[in-house]
């Protein structure tokens, strides 16, 4: 029985640091665990300029507890995004990627894309400059059932983008369905997907059965058990096509526990421990390092972290705190419906 693991230190390829006083709380927790993270740009005023991105990155770094922590910054894709500004930011290593939000699909996405043909000139330049496109893969159409929106986006929008720009590096983020898993497995090597801890753990019945659980509500929304199982198989099978993106998305508890609760799950604090336990439960610990630490750098053409971490299996379940809070904010920390025995013992610095 495996009781200790040594793996390359992981990165989180999708995180929300929000803004204001929340940043200090969130950056500290993330920088404890990860060396790099892709930072989402959907603030109340979307990040679309060099001035904004410099200010936001500086603020993030001011709160990091890890000297090697590198926030990889993104522009928010709008139909009027300044291509010259994007190229300049990319060439000066200020922008790592561009995030596509369909308008109205999730938190702070009202200024996202409505007419996808209008972004084709931007995508053309991104393909030429090898700037990754990060995709929130859902349509926002009241005529489309919310549980079908990922599939319809892939079929009606993403297929066309790929056909038009076959060399564009694409990450289909926080996938939730077997359909998306199969799509990525069949795609060219420049198209990969991130998977969250909560989509590996929960299905829609967990959220809705008997009593509604607002802290399980996220977008993309949880899907069927068959979809969850497909995600677990994709993550644990050793394929290079999938990697961790926590989509850790905090909201104040009052905004979650309300008659119009916000979408988002905060899972940063115990994310590595949860993922390790999932792999252990599936008898796939040999593939853990690929999913957590290697597949992301391969996709983004980045070096692996030089540091390593040691994970130890405890004889008794771990206990995590329930909330992350300060004087202004109280955020529920996601807790899986199974015991976690794996914890981070130490870090090895070369």
Tell me what you see in this structure.
The strands form 4 sheets. The chain has a 6-stranded parallel β-sheet. The protein has one domain: TIM Barrel (Alpha-Beta Barrel). 34% of the residues lie in helices and 16% in strands. Strand 5, helix 3 (83-91) and strand 6 (97-100) form a beta-alpha-beta unit. It has 12 helices and 14 strands. The radius of gyration is 19 Å and the shape is globular. With 350 residues, it is α/β, with parallel strands linked by helices.
Decide which structural class fits the backbone: alpha/beta
Largest sheet: 6 strands, parallel
Shape: globular
Number of helices: 12
Distance from N terminus to C terminus (CA atoms, Å) equals 28 Å
Could you tell me the CATH topology label.
TIM Barrel
> Going across the major beta sheet, what is the strand order?
5-6-7-8-9-10
Number of strands: 14
Mean pLDDT comes to 97
CATH architecture, please? Alpha-Beta Barrel
CATH superfamily: Metal-dependent hydrolases
Task: Specify the helix fraction band.
Answer: 25-40%
Spans of at least 5 consecutive residues with low confidence: none
């Amino acid at each position: 029985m495996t009781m200790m693991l040594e793996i390359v230190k992981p990165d989180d390829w999708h995180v929300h640091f929000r803004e204001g006083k929340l940043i200090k709380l969130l950056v500290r927790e993330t920088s404890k665990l990860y060396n790099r993270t892709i930072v989402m740009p959907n603030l109340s005023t979307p990040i679309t300029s060099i001035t904004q991105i410099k200010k936001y990155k500086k603020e993030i770094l001011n709160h990091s507890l890890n000297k090697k922590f590198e926030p990889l910054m993104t522009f928010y894709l709008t139909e009027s995004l300044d291509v010259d500004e994007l190229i300049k930011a990319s060439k000066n290593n200020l922008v790592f990627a561009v995030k596509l939000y369909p308008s109205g699909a999730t938190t702070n996405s009202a200024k996202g894309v409505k007419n996808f043909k209008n972004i084709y000139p931007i995508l053309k330049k991104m393909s030429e400059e090898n700037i990754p496109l990060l995709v929130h893969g859902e349509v926002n159409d009241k005529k489309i059932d919310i549980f079908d929106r990922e599939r319809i986006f892939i079929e009606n929008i993403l297929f066309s983008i790929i056909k038009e720009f076959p060399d564009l590096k694409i990450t289909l983020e926080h996938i939730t369905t077997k359909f998306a898993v199969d799509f990525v497995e069949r795609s060219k090597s420049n198209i990969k997907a991130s998977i969250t801890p909560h989509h590996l753990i929960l299905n829609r019945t967990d959220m809705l059965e008997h009593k509604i659980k607002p802290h399980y509500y996220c977008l993309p929304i949880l899907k069927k058990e068959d979809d969850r199982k497909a995600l677990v198989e994709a993550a644990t099978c050793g394929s290079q096509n999938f990697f961790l993106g926590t989509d850790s998305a905090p909201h104040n508890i009052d905004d979650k526990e309300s008659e119009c609760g916000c979408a988002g799950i905060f899972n940063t604090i115990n994310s590595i421990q949860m993922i390790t336990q999932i792999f252990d439960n599936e008898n796939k610990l040999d593939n853990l390092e690929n999913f957590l630490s290697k597949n992301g750098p391969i996709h983004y053409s980045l070096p692996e972290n030089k540091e390593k971490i040691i994970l130890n299996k405890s004889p008794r379940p771990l206990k995590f705190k329930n909330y992350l809070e300060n004087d202004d904010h109280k955020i529920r920390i996601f807790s899986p419906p199974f015991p976690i025995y794996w914890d981070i013992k130490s870090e090895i610095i070369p």
